Amino acid sequence: MRPNIYLFGDSITEESFGDGGWGASLSHHFCRTVDVVLRGYSGYNTRWALKVAERIFPPVESGGAPPLAVTVFFGANDACLPDRYSAFQHVPLREYKQNLHSIISFFKKRWPEIVILLITPPPIDEDARLRHPYIENPSGLPERTNEAAGAYAQACISVAKECGCPVVDLWIKMQECPDWKQAYLSDGLHLTQAGNRIVFEEVVKELKEKGISVENLPVDLPHIANIDPQDPLKAFQDC
Amino acid sequence: MRPNIYLFGDSITEESFGDGGWGASLSHHFCRTVDVVLRGYSGYNTRWALKVAERIFPPVESGGAPPLAVTVFFGANDACLPDRYSAFQHVPLREYKQNLHSIISFFKKRWPEIVILLITPPPIDEDARLRHPYIENPSGLPERTNEAAGAYAQACISVAKECGCPVVDLWIKMQECPDWKQAYLSDGLHLTQAGNRIVFEEVVKELKEKGISVENLPVDLPHIANIDPQDPLKAFQDC
């Protein structure tokens, strides 16, 4: 049985199987070795994620194999400003850190060997947020700021360090490109295909550093290159 | 727990989570309702598929929910000509039909309510096969012909009718477009993004006719639109 890698997060995870999406790319990358299981919930913050984690992640896996890894990719909604139109998604920074700690504890208790890979929220293009509001926004002020996203990204990195978890610093990584607003963000928050590509590459890199790579994983059933053209059925004797 | 839809097939299934792939598109389409589980095995024919079906599809699902549907997409390798370089993948037409019957029986016995959606092999562009051989091919003759693929497609449709299963006639559907060779095939056999799009649309259509659609399936956990901004946690009381 193939082990799972779970993708747990908000809309940037839920949308990750769209064209060029980082989830689909992971699934393609790990095909024949791992099932990449999508558990993205648009609009969710860490407070709501904690409420549902028990239900989303059943203790018993099909076939009994524990999952190899989980990506935990929250913060973009927690970082909504408390005095703007998305205030109901806001979670204070201090609680965000506590919640991430609790989510990590939940996974460590459930599956002690699982690799928990945190991903920080992406940077925010505030002008683009004003052009792409979820609802009517007569205030003229964006519901998220890049500064706030940066504070949550920093908190996420702190928690990862405290817990010994790997982390992708998406907030910094994306801003290394001068053209990050156009190149990586489609509406100032969600990711373009190039933005998805960065997440994919960083996740593959971090998983590889933890020993989770296509090279290290058993291939599900004989590869065509290992099937003897003179006696193909020999390859299936043990199946 | 979300139910599964399995994708069982050869390389055209295995590659279906690449950019614009039909598997990734299905996963995106059904997100929050279904887990689309990739079980594609490059180069496999129905003979080999039968050898491994028992191992690939364990009787007990995680959480106990039986899968909603499975796509069975074999024939492109069975239809390799028996006197060309891919002869070891060839399965005679008569056995191909028997094997499809056996695969359907396997799924019906395993999960009596499952929707088994057959997909015929795609048409073959023989000139493109000569330009894109798997191995050195000094014969100057393609290892697959469109006529042979058409015979296997017709056999697949017959089996579907005999068993009362829905079927996507990809061989015919693609050739309705005058430019099918360039539009839908990347190497005379595998699919371009436009070719993947056709498979995706046809699968969604056939599943919908069997009552499997996003509109009919329960959404996993409260949708953001149904979370009360005045009292968000109310939505999670039963989780």
UniProtKB/TrEMBL annotation, chains A, B:
Gene Ontology biological-process annotations: lipid catabolic process
Source superkingdom: Eukaryota
GO molecular function: hydrolase activity, acting on ester bonds
Entry annotated with the keyword Hydrolase: yes
Keyword Lipid metabolism: yes
Entries under InterPro entries matching the protein: GDSL, Iah1-like, SGNH_hydro_sf
Keywords, ordered alphabetically: Hydrolase, Lipid degradation, Lipid metabolism
CDD domains on file: Isoamyl_acetate_hydrolase_like
Family: Belongs to the 'GDSL' lipolytic enzyme family.
Protein name in UniProt: GDSL-motif lipase/hydrolase family protein
Source species of the chain: Populus alba
